[in-house]
Specification:
CATH topology of the largest domain: Four Helix Bundle (Hemerythrin (Met), subunit A)
Strand order of the largest sheet: 2-3-4-6-7-9-8
CATH superfamily of the largest domain: Aspartate receptor, ligand-binding domain
Organism: Candidatus Auribacter fodinae
CATH class of the largest domain: Mainly Alpha
Radius of gyration: 59 Å
GO cellular component, one term: membrane
Protein name: histidine kinase
Number of helices: 9
CATH architecture of the largest domain: Up-down Bundle
Number of domains: 2
Strand content: 5-15%
Distance between the termini: 30 Å
Structural class: alpha+beta
Subcellular location: Membrane
EC number: 2.7.13.3
Helix content: 55-70%
């Protein structure tokens, strides 16, 4: 339930933050798009006005200069025409004058195509008309051979017209400069207008954003904060709190209804679970009592079985000594009595030890693995016929060589850096003894080698017992830890099938894990145990 409330609070917080960010991002995008649109529109208008103005001014200046040059050229041509006496030369000069006049007319039409300067162009047209009249008057005087008067008209009226025309051309150029200045003022004013519009948009969007934030806070953030507060109470174990929102028909209203229904169900389930927990506690007490009774029962049974078995074994020994040279059949039967009696004793001992595993208090200590192994080898000396052993240290490995029986050599290799075990010494010794005993019982024809390695990490101690014995079929690596499980016939290898079950019980009681690994028969086996480091 605490996990559920944590997840619920996290989801509500993420929803609140996501909603705020989404709306803020949306408004910011609108503001940016508006500013970009205004800037783009203003830039396009300014560019258009700038390019059209520059083009018009350049066009007018170029045409005015051409007209000015052509008028002075025509003045010189008219002077030569008046002074010429050869008719052929006069006609040639007259043709040049007409060509120059055509060019002036052509430039005049192009110059006056701009309607923005109609007043100025009206004066220019007037001077052009006077110039054309002067030209025709000179032609007429020349045809009448009045050269002196023609020259007088050219030098007086012609120069006056040229002077006035030059003044008009200068005025035209000044007007164009004024256009350029106006263009720069327009661009500057447009820039300030652009800044003004951008400022207005930013202020308006800020006000809208602030208004939206207030609306969001009142309609979303405040209810979500209330939901978070309820979730924190649920996390603390108070399932009586309920979510209250203003608008029950909104999305948050539906969420609140779902949460309230969930809390109702949780509270109902909690009431039911409290009853179940109480029943389980009672059942657990009863199970513990039954377990205690069962352990007592096993102890009694073990005691009751031990007594007659001891008697049988004793009388069997006496009978064997007294009969001496009895028939082989009798001796064989007596041996079977003794063997089965010993087997029953071992079984009873194992059952007794198995029953005691769950009742012994866990007085854990830090124990060096090497000392445990040395103690176990000493205890196994008589039981497994293990004789003297020698200790050799090579590099980071401790090698213990010993004899199984009188001649069969075996070796036990330990990593020098094995970590300590935090366990009950007597019980962990039983685990080690079982592993070594099984390695000896199920050894192969080649000399037995047992390797013990270990690591410490993540607060756990991991030990691995590896031998080169017969190995285990992989499908039985879990089954061998069951009670009374045997994989070979009793006549082949002695044992009760309780040892590994007791190992599992001891390791699990230490809050650890145990498992076996093997690649198959003939490939040896590895037994892993993992125990908490502290």
């Amino acid at each position: 339930m605490c996990i559920m409330s944590d997840v619920m609070m996290k989801n509500f917080f993420n929803l609140r933050v996501s909603t705020q960010l989404a709306i803020q991002l949306f408004l910011i995008i609108i503001m940016i798009c508006s500013v970009v649109g205004i800037v783009f529109y203003a830039k396009r208008n300014v560019n258009y006005y700038y390019e059209s103005t520059i083009e018009a001014v350049t066009h007018n200046q170029r045409l005015a200069n051409h007209i000015k040059k052509l008028i002075y050229q025509m003045s010189e041509q008219l002077g030569e025409y008046i002074a010429a006496s050869d008719p052929a030369q006069q006609e040639a000069l007259k043709e040049e004058i007409h060509q120059t006049d055509s060019l002036i007319a052509e430039y005049e039409q192009k110059l006056f195509a701009d309607e923005d300067q109609l007043t100025l162009f009206a004066h220019v047209r007037s001077e052009f008309a006077k110039w054309h009249g002067l030209k025709e008057e000179i032609f007429l005087l020349k045809r009448s051979n009045d050269v002196q008067k023609a020259m007088y008209v050219l030098n007086t009226s012609g120069k006056d017209i040229c002077a006035r025309f030059e003044i008009l051309i200068q005025v035209l150029l000044l007007h164009d400069n004024a256009l350029l200045n106006h263009m720069h003022e327009y661009i500057a004013s447009g820039f300030y207008k652009l800044l003004y519009y951008i400022a207005v948009i930013v202020i308006v969007m800020f006000i809208v954003l602030l208004f939206m934030m207030i609306v969001i806070y009142n309609s979303i953030v405040t209810p979500l904060a209330h939901i978070k507060k309820v979730a924190e109470k649920v996390k603390a174990g108070d399932y009586s709190s309920r979510v209250q929102v203003g608008n029950d028909k909104s999305e948050l209203g539906h969420v609140a209804a779902v949460i309230n229904n969930m809390l109702d169900q949780i509270e109902h389930n909690k009431q039911g679970s409290d009853g179940i927990i109480s029943s389980l506690d009672n059942l657990n007490c009863r199970l513990q009592l039954k377990n205690s009774e069962m352990e007592d029962f096993v102890k009694v049974i073990a005691h009751d079985i031990k007594s007659p078995l001891s008697t049988i074994e004793m009388y069997g020994d006496l009978l064997q000594r007294e009969i001496g040279h009895s028939p082989e059949r009798v001796l064989h039967d007596i041996e079977r009595i003794q063997a089965n009696t010993r087997r029953l004793r071992v079984l009873v001992d194992d059952l007794t030890e198995y029953s005691l595993v769950g009742s012994v208090e866990l007085d854990k200590k830090n124990i060096p693995v090497q000392s445990i192994i040395e103690d176990v080898l000493g205890l196994m000396g008589k039981k497994e016929s293990i004789n003297q052993y020698d200790v050799i240290i090579e590099n980071n490995t401790i090698k213990m060589t010993f004899l199984i029986g009188k001649t069969e050599k075996a070796m036990l290799c330990l990593d020098k850096s094995l970590p300590d075990l935090y366990a009950v010494p007597s019980q962990i010794s039983q685990v080690f003894m079982n592993f070594f005993s099984n390695a000896i019982k199920y050894r192969s024809e080649k000399p037995l080698e047992i390797h013990v390695s270990g690591t410490l990490g993540n607060g756990e101690t991991h030990l691995v017992f590896t031998d080169n014995g017969r190995g285990i079929n992989p499908q039985y690596t879990k089954k061998i830890f069951d009670m009374c499980c045997r994989l070979v016939a009793l006549s082949e290898v002695e044992g009760t099938g309780i040892g590994l079950a007791m190992v599992k019980k001891i390791i699990e009681r230490h809050n650890g894990r145990v498992w076996a690994e093997s690649k198959g028969e003939g490939h040896g086996a590895s037994f892993h145990i993992i125990l908490p480091a502290q």
